[in-house]
Amino acid sequence: MTIEISKDQRHKAIVSIERYFSENMEQKIGNIAAGALLGFILEEIGPTLYNQGVTDTQKRLQILFSDLDMKLSEIDIEVHEDEFDYWRKYDKQVKAKR
């Protein structure tokens, strides 16, 4: 199964990869190279992350559905993770160190 992401998610991921290289590798990575790296990650590592997400969701749903008051419409709230959150957390840590 190929992991597909939207055009907007792809753009955000490429920008994040470029920033990561700039701040952590002390070198720049171009837009095309960052896009190629993203493609590799999605194809090679993405399925592992996806499968782990499915497994984690199954475990969480078993717990949630043991409570009969749980509504199907609340599942997305219970298992949702924010996307592209690395830099928000990173910037917050950097500010705290100052």
Largest sheet: none
Q: Count helical runs.
A: 5
Stretches where pLDDT is under 50 for at least 5 consecutive residues are: none
Give the CA-CA distance, first to last residue.
44 Å
Shape: extended
Strand content: under 5%
Structure explained in plain terms:
This protein is an all-alpha fold and about 100 residues long. Helix content is about 70%, strand content about 0%. The chain has five helices and no strands. It has helices at about 5-25, 30-45, 45-65, 75-80, 85-95. The radius of gyration is 17 Å and the shape is extended. The protein starts with 6 loop residues before the first helix and ends with a helix. About 0% of the residues are buried. The model has no long low-confidence stretch (mean pLDDT about 85).
Brief overview, please?
It is built from five helices and no strands.
What keywords describe this structure?
5 helices, 0% strand, mainly alpha, extended, 70% helix, 98 residues, single chain
Write the layout of secondary structure elements.
Elements: H1 7-24, H2 31-44, H3 46-65, H4 75-79, H5 86-97
Helix pairs in contact: 1-2
